[in-house]
Backbone:
C-alpha cells in the first residue's frame, strides 16, 4: 500500500531524520488554526490589510469571515505580473492610506503573500511613508505557507511583533500579576487556572484576546511572569524575558494528568507561589472514570490540528488505558515533544506516525476504516468512518485537569451524536 510510505512506527522515531518526509510535499490538512490574519487581529485596536493574488486572498477571506473579523480585515487584489515587476507598491501604498483615512485603529498590519516573500520585495519605503502620512504604526507580515518548518513561522513572527508595543513601557513589577500568552479563544475567568492562581494570591491575570485597548495591553509589562500555553507565543515570551526581565514559564495545553501535574509544578517555581490544584485533580479523576470506561475497546487516532501536541494527547489516552493506533503529524517537532515521543516508544512501540503532508496519504481512507475515534479534523479526514473530535483552538479553551475531562466529554458526545468531517469544516467553520 502507498500509505506505508507515509508512516513510521514510533519505536523507530528518535530524530527528525526518521520522519517519513517526501521529496515533494503539499500543505497537509492540519493547518486549521491561528492563521496569520487571525494572529494579527488578536492585538487590540488593530486592522489588517492583505495584498496578493486572488487565490491567496480567498482562503484568508473565508477564515476572517468564519472568525467574525471581516470588519477589521481588508483585501487588496494584486495581479501576479504587477507583483513580479514591482509595479504594485504604489497601489498597495495608496490602498493602505485610503483605508487608514476611514478607520480609527492605531495599528495596521500589512500582510503580503508568497510571491512577495519569494521575490524579497522591499516594503521599507512604503512603510516609512505610510507611517509618516497616516500617523499609524504599520507592521509588515507574510502569509507564506512555503515557510512552514523554516525558522519562525509567519504566525510566530506576527505574534512576536506584539513586543513592539511593550518594549518601551516602563516596568513596575506587580507580584500579583501574571500574563497568559498563547490563547486565541481566551480562558474563562471562572475556569480552573484562574481559580488556582487567584487562590494563591495572583489576582491580576491578563490575556491578549481580552485586552480592550493598547493601554490595557501595555500593562502586561508589569507582570511577575508569563505563562505560555502555546508554542506560538514562545518568541514573544522570549523577548519579554530577555529584554524586559519578565520570566516565562512554558506550560502547554495538556490532556494527561501526569503532564498537568508537571505543568503546575513549573508554575509553582515560576511564580514562587504554592498553587494547590489538588481539589481539581480529585474532581477530574472522579469525572473522568465513567467517561474512560465508555471508550474501552475503541481504537483511537490523533491528529496535529488539535489544540496541543498530538504526542501528548496520545500519551494521555494511553495512560487512561485506551487503544491508540495512529498519530497524524507534521515534520516540525517542538523541542518538548521529543520527551513525549520517547515515552510513547516505551509504552506503545507499535503506534504508527503518519505524515499528513505526504502525497501518498492524499485521499487514502481505507487503511483507517478500523479507527473508531479520530481527534483533530485532519485525522478525521483520513479516518472517515470514525467519530471526529476536533479539539479545535476555536472551541472552548481550558487548561489543567478540567481540560482532560472536557476532552473526554467531547469524545463521548461525538460517539452519541457523530458529526461528519464535511459538516465540521463547512458548517462549523473549522476551515483547513
Residues:
Amino acid at each position: 500500500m502507498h500509505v506505508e510510505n507515509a508512516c513510521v512506527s514510533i519505536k523507530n522515531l528518535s530524530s527528525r531524520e526518521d520522519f517519513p518526509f517526501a521529496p515533494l510535499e503539499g500543505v497537509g490538512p492540519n493547518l486549521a488554526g491561528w492563521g496569520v490574519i487571525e494572529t494579527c487581529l488578536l492585538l487590540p485596536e488593530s486592522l489588517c490589510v492583505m495584498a496578493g493574488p486572488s487565490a491567496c486572498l480567498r482562503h484568508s477571506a473565508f477564515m476572517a469571515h468564519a472568525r467574525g473579523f471581516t470588519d477589521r480585515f481588508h483585501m487588496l487584489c494584486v495581479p501576479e505580473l504587477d507583483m513580479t515587476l514591482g509595479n504594485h507598491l504604489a497601489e498597495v501604498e495608496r490602498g493602505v492610506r485610503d483605508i487608514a483615512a476611514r478607520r480609527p485603529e492605531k495599528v495596521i498590519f500589512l500582510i503580503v503573500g508568497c510571491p512577495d516573500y519569494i521575490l524579497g520585495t522591499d516594503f521599507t519605503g512604503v512603510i516609512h511613508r505610510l507611517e509618516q502620512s497616516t500617523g499609524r504604526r504599520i507592521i509588515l507580515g507574510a502569509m507564506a505557507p512555503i515557510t512552514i518548518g523554516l525558522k519562525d513561522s509567519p504566525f510566530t513572527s506576527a505574534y512576536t511583533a506584539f513586543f513592539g508595543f511593550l518594549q518601551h513601557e516602563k516596568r513596575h513589577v506587580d507580584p500579583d500579576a501574571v500574563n497568559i500568552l498563547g490563547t486565541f479563544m481566551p480562558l474563562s475567568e471562572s475556569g480552573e487556572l484562574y481559580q488556582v492562581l487567584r487562590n494563591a494570591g495572583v489576582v491580576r491575570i491578563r490575556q491578549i484576546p481580552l485586552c480592550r485597548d493598547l493601554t490595557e495591553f501595555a500593562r502586561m509589562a508589569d507582570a511577575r511572569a508569563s505563562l505560555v500555553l502555546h508554542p506560538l507565543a514562545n518568541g514573544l515570551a522570549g523577548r519579554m524575558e530577555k529584554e524586559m526581565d519578565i520570566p516565562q514559564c512554558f506550560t502547554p495545553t495538556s490532556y494527561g494528568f501526569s503532564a498537568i501535574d508537571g505543568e503546575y509544578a513549573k508554575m509553582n517555581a515560576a511564580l514562587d507561589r504554592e498553587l494547590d490544584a489538588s481539589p481539581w485533580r480529585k474532581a477530574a479523576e472522579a469525572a473522568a472514570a465513567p467517561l474512560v470506561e465508555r471508550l474501552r475497546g475503541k481504537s483511537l487516532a490523533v491528529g496535529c490540528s488539535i489544540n496541543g501536541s498530538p504526542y501528548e494527547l496520545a500519551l494521555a489516552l494511553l495512560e487512561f488505558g485506551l487503544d491508540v493506533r495512529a498519530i497524524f503529524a507534521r515534520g516540525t517537532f517542538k523541542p518538548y515533544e521529543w520527551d513525549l515521543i520517547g515515552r510513547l516508544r516505551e509504552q506503545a512501540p507499535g503506534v504508527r506516525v503518519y505524515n499528513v503532508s505526504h502525497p501518498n496519504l492524499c485521499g487514502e481512507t481505507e487503511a483507517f476504516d478500523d479507527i473508531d475515534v479520530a481527534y483533530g479534523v485532519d485525522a478525521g479526514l483520513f479516518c472517515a468512518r470514525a467519530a471526529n473530535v476536533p479539539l479545535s483552538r476555536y472551541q472552548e479553551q481550558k487548561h489543567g485537569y478540567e481540560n482532560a475531562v472536557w476532552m473526554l466529554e467531547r469524545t463521548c458526545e461525538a460517539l452519541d451524536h457523530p458529526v461528519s468531517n464535511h459538516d465540521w469544516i463547512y458548517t462549523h467553520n473549522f476551515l483547513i
